[in-house]
């Protein structure tokens, strides 16, 4: 009913029908298989063969309760296996030793569970982020932080520690949300109780950075799009930035994984990698293929392309998830390096790949576009996320409004 496999270790919930009780019930066990050796771990649950067949889809309260109990037992064993694999080695001796303890009795262990699950799901970017968050947490609290130790005061002191290191509130907020996510898992598993939960109203509230407003004006965008120093490399990265801006502010990770098959009926349609795994409803983002975008594709795209070819040719499709991540990171870094030089020449502060996305959203806002439309075209799941992208209280607006104060005539 429940199954997990990784690195040669298999965990399954099974009905051990080798010997029945007097009531013709069989024990439900968690079976772990490694190198053709099988070990069985009790769930404390018994059921008939017929009941076992009906259990996955049964809607009776009793059966649902049993199913949840079996899943909890399965998750305990699976969690320990994931931690052992993360730490570099699985053995039945180590598994049996850990079975006497909770697999997530520390914040560190909870992070490792999360990190392994993300890796199993090939969510490479988020996996790497949680690795960084764990390093930060351990640099402050050590490698054995009990959940009970993560109190409101602990979190406030962690925030102060990060500020002393020169970290921005945006970074602190991101790491604290990672901590909260791990603690939420522990709460759902019953490892901590509601009165031990440190987040929320009247407890610790995660700080939010105001964020840098990176949007350009239309005149600045025009100057970037027309810029040249006579070097082909500069023009290529300039065009990739402009394509990102025109393609609904697409981020570079999504742009570099676009295939010719994403071009349909005069539009480029794609799923955002950032949200496609976490959203129940998979919403495609569609951008009109403008003349300018078509010119960029023809200039820098693959010649005589096939539908499954990547448009910009940095990827082949044979890369592992980590290799793909490295390629995207390298291209983005090189592009940002070139954009910085362009920005210095044009007098534009902090010109980067990310500026294209902010500029797309803000130009539409300045033009009077509906925020709901902007949100949909960016691929956001809620309007609040979109509002954070929009340049609020822009200087040009403040200057215009200030002039009204003395407009006596």
Automatic annotation (TrEMBL):
InterPro entries: Arm-DNA-bind_5, DNA_brk_join_enz, Integrase-like_cat_sf, Integrase_catalytic, Integrase_recombinase_N, SAM-like_dom, Tyrosine_recombinase_XerCD. Pfam families: Arm-DNA-bind_5 (PF17293), Phage_int_SAM_5 (PF13102), Phage_integrase (PF00589). Residues 211-404 form the Tyr recombinase domain. GO terms for biological process: DNA integration; DNA recombination. Keywords: DNA recombination, DNA-binding. PROSITE patterns: TYR_RECOMBINASE. One of its GO terms (molecular function) is DNA binding. Belongs to the 'phage' integrase family. This is Site-specific integrase. It comes from Gaoshiqia sediminis.
């Amino acid at each position: 009913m429940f199954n997990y496999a990784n690195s040669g270790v298999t965990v399954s919930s099974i009905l051990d029908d080798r010997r029945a009780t007097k009531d013709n019930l069989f024990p439900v066990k968690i079976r772990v298989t490694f190198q053709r050796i099988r070990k069985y771990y009790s769930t404390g649950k018994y059921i008939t063969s017929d009941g076992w067949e009906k259990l996955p889809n049964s809607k009776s309260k009793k059966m649902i309760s049993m199913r949840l109990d079996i899943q909890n037992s399965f998750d305990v064993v699976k969690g320990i296996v994931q931690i052992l694999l993360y730490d570099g080695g699985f053995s039945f001796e180590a598994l049996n030793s850990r079975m006497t303890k909770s697999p997530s009795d520390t914040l560190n262990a909870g992070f490792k569970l999360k990190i392994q699950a993300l890796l199993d799901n090939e969510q490479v970017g988020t996996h790497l982020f949680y690795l960084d968050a764990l390093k930060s947490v351990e640099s402050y609290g050590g490698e054995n932080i009990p959940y009970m130790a993560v109190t409101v005061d602990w979190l406030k002191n962690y925030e102060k520690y990060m500020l002393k290191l020169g970290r921005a509130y945006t970074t602190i907020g991101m790491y604290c949300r990672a901590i909260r996510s791990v603690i939420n898992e522990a709460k759902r598993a019953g490892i901590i109780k509601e009165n031990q939960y440190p987040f929320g109203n009247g407890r610790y509230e995660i700080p939010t950075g105001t964020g840098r407003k990176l949007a350009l004006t239309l005149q600045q965008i025009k100057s970037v799009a027309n810029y040249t120093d006579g070097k082909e490399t500069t023009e290529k990265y300039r065009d990739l930035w402009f394509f990102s801006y025109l393609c609904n502010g697409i981020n570079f990770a999504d742009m570099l994984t676009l295939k010719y098959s994403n071009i349909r009926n005069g539009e480029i349609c794609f799923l955002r990698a950032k949200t496609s795994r976490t959203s129940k409803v998979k919403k495609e983002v569609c951008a009109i293929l403008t003349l300018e975008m078509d010119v960029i594709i023809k200039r820098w795209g693959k010649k005589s392309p096939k539908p499954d070819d990547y448009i910009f040719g940095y990827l082949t499709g044979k890369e592992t998830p980590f290799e793909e991540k490295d390629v995207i990171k390298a291209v983005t870094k090189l592009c940002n390096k070139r954009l910085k030089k362009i920005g210095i020449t044009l007098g534009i502060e902090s010109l980067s790949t990310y500026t294209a996305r902010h500029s797309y959203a803000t130009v539409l806002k300045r033009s009077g576009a509906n925020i709901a439309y902007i949100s949909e075209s960016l691929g956001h799941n809620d309007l609040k996320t979109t509002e954070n992208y929009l340049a609020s209280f822009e200087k040009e607006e403040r200057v215009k409004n200030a002039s009204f104060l003395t407009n006596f005539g």
